[in-house]
Amino acid sequence: MSPKYIYFFGNGSAEGSADMKHLLGGKGANLAEMTNLGIPVPPGFTITTEVCDAYYKKNQQYPEGLAEEIERNLSQLEKLMGAKLGDAENPLLVSVRSGAAASMPGMMDTVLNLGLNPDAIKGLMKKTGNERFAWDAYRRFITMFGDVVMGVERHHFEEILDKYKKKTRVKSDTELTAEQLKNIVEEFKVIYKKKTRESFPHDPKVQLQKAINAVFASWNNPRAIKYRQLYDIKGLLGTAVNVQAMVFGNMGNDSATGVCFTRNPSTGENKFYGEFLINAQGEDVVAGIRTPEPIADLEKEMPDAYSQLVKYKNILENHFKDVQDIEFTIQESRLFMLQTRTGKRTARAAVKLAVDMAREGLIDKKTAISRIDPGQLDQLLHPTFDPKAKREIVAVGLPASPGAATGRVVFCAEDAERLAEKNEKVILVRKETSPEDIGGMHASQGILTTRGGMTSHAAVVARGMGKCCVAGCGSLNVDYKNQNFKVNGRVIKKGEYISLDGSSGEVMLGQVSTIEPKLSGDFATLMEWADEYRKLKIRTNADTPEDARKARELGAEGIGLCRTEHMFFGENRIDSVRQMILSAPDVKNLKAKISFLEKELAKAANDKADVLKKELMLVKKELKEPLVSYSSALKNLLPMQRRDFEQIFKAMDGLPVTIRLLDPPLHEFLPQEEYNQKEIAKKMKLSLKEIQEKVSALHELNPMLGHRGCRLGVTYPEIYDMQVQAIIEAACNMKKKGITVYPEIMLPIISTEQEFSVLKDNVHKIAKDVMQKKNMQIEYMVGTMIELPRAALIADKIAKHAEFFSFGTNDLTQMTFGFSRDDVGSFVPEYLEKGILEKDPFQVLDQEGTGQLVEIGIHKGRSIRSNLKVGICGEHGGNPQTISFCHKIGMNYVSCSPFRVPIARLAAAQASLQQPVSRATV
Ligand code: PEP
Ligand code: MG
């Protein structure tokens, strides 16, 4: 039996269903489902995504038998409708629409009113008795067909239309008469021929075939490709093509077309939401060309159609158990549903919808948790405008997508992308946006449009992206030519700062200050639900008490990484740090010299001994100065570090705090500019030359592989001693004040068992001294970071000494790939573009390679210490995909930056719902 390429729907039954999205695309599958539910859907048929796949694989040739299948389905449709394509008595008109399994709003092509030709127009006039409508449909068809199928730019047609409107002094298309539209159609055909060098096709079957080709071709148009990249849409066969009988919202004042959502997709409020236009076709609503009316007004205008619409939207939401984004058309008071799909929503709405629906009993808690994309929560963790800040409001538009955005005004997508690349914050200001603007919208902080409503392209795309958007701000007069906009007598030029409040629709001058977000209401509820299901603990990477407090507020259950070096950069500390670093090598060399001379002296004969003694004295004298400098620098740093640790312990009262001893190569702290070098020379009473010599002596060719991490602890033990002393003293001081402390001292860049065991012994020695002096006992642990492949491979040996492991996957990725983490910008983007890498391995853990090392490390570590506590503290700890992997391989916790804590809580819950038992649970 030959494969089935087409699925028919109509007359209350369909061959497809909602679970066939992969094959029929979202639109086709749901049209079939709606038909089966008894909802009025114009009949039609769906050509499968497999045909699209075959079309691309076979050099744009269709599979055998497809033409006959199209013919058969078309006859079935004609029979059902009692109308024929191109018929002079009763013509059938169809729409040809794209629709892939993943929704890509506006990115692919659509042709409406297909089937019109000189015969069919007569038939359409007879059938409808509406001459004006028929010519209007024809001119729209030529425009769409010319643009979508033949690449004749729309503006050629729009210019002719504008010419007629000017000539007849009318403002709106709807005011043009039948006669004028007829003339317009003739002019459209002329321009079509001029641009394509062929006549506009009259044969409806030729029209249909060409339109089907164009829709399949649009799967790979640049904006669709970009959209798939942006949203990481992969693994689809292509688009399906839906050929469906046309219904008309532009047949007069008893006709309308609209877009609606079963609940508010911006706020999540359970209120019917949407808009419509009387006497218009669907494209007018989505393109934002005319500003539509709110859906509630439809009740007054067409009460019967409205009550039917409410009935069907309720059926659909109950059936799909999620917010539906619906397109409908009312033709001469009769309602038709043209599309339903899961509504794209802002993060705020997503959270409210999930919590509300679970409370209503429509879904369960687990579904509520699983339904939210953890990455999307990022939007809720961004600052909002400070209510106390002064706002100079110049205009108010529609609050199309929430958020607080500030940036420089730009008027085109290219400028937005160009400036964003230079790290400039921009606001894209357009009359309306179109699918071509997608890259620029993505690059902007916010989008401001003068036309269009809550369901215009700008609004829908911005909500999907989580971008702030103010739409339909009609009081703005945008002048693309002069690159400015005028509002209330003011002129705002390109490059000037404005701020947008996507929740109120306010447009403000200048940069309005913002405040930190809070975790409360539905967001907090959802987090509590997530906590019921997750197995992973969530810690944070925090180096300051403020970060620690913030992270705890957001749900952190401890600190997984406190990078002590960040504390060294404070204004009053860096001098002491520099003093310590600059004197350290001298101390080390001179000490080595002394120990050598002492050994020589012990075995020397009398005459040589005198010389050695003299030399020893001189070296000891020489040591005095740097030693004083070194010791005093360490002494200065000790109380500062202790204070930091005390505050962090306090913020994390009762929770574990992992503190990593100094990690980066020392030269990172040194002044590289001559002017700074002069300053430090003066402070240390050395010459500029001496400082420069020391700086250059510390220079390394490959610092990431050089004198860093525990290697510093081995060669400059006093630095680690000072840090351990500060940690344990801080712990004692806080414990005395009733704070419960769990310090975990962590050694970085360990590659051998001996490194760890030597340094660990030293940590215990210092800790013991401090505790003895303070006459107190502190429960603390000493563990290691696993950042080097060698450490992962000998993890069983390290685990003999280490009480915990924390995978430093930033370095582990760097060392596994051999990609410098500071230089990947020069080639990783191209690797991603060419598909050599699927994901940036510094953002999403490479499970195949680096992940294998992590698994080996855990397995070997726990083979020696079965209850070994294991976590991750590289940047990957906040990445949902990596979190799922960490759950699967049995880690105890992930640690991420404070603002990713809620994301990690949700991702951990989702991982555990997907995989209740992890592989190596301890
Ligand atoms: C790591 O390497 O993953 C890590 C957390 O340490 P850092 O980023 O400070 O090198
Ligand atoms: Mg590291």
From TrEMBL:
Start and end residues of each PEP-utilising enzyme mobile domain: 424-505
Q: Which Gene3D superfamilies match?
A: 1.20.80.30, ATP-grasp fold, A domain (3.30.1490.20), ATP-grasp fold, B domain (3.30.470.20), Phosphoenolpyruvate-binding domains (3.20.20.60), Phosphohistidine domain (3.50.30.10), Pyruvate Phosphate Dikinase, domain 2 (1.10.189.10)
Q: Which residues form a coiled coil?
A: 587-622
Q: Which residues bind Mg(2+)?
A: E787, D811
Q: ATP-binding: present as a keyword of the record? A: yes
Where the record annotates domain Pyruvate phosphate dikinase AMP/ATP-binding, the positions are 22-294, 306-359
Q: Which residues bind substrate?
A: R563, R660, E787, G808, T809, N810, D811
Q: Which range is the signal sequence, renumbered to this chain? A: none
* GO molecular function annotations of the record: ATP binding; kinase activity; metal ion binding; pyruvate, phosphate dikinase activity
Q: What does the record give as EC number?
A: 2.7.9.1
Reactions it catalyzes: pyruvate + phosphate + ATP = phosphoenolpyruvate + AMP + diphosphate + H(+)
State its cofactor.
Mg(2+)
Report whether Cytoplasm shows up as a keyword of the record. Answer: no
A Pfam family that the UniProt record links to this protein: PEP-utilizers
Identify the domain of life: Bacteria
Could you tell me which residue ranges the PEP-utilising enzyme C-terminal domain spans?
Answer: 520-911
Active-site positions on this chain: H457 (tele-phosphohistidine intermediate), C873 (proton donor)
Q: Which keywords accompany this UniProt record?
A: ATP-binding, Coiled coil, Kinase, Magnesium, Metal-binding, Nucleotide-binding, Pyruvate, Transferase
Q: What is the similarity comment for this entry?
A: Belongs to the PEP-utilizing enzyme family.
Q: What does this protein do?
A: Catalyzes the reversible phosphorylation of pyruvate and phosphate.
Query: What is this protein identified as?
Result: Pyruvate, phosphate dikinase
Q: Which organism is it from?
A: Candidatus Jettenia caeni
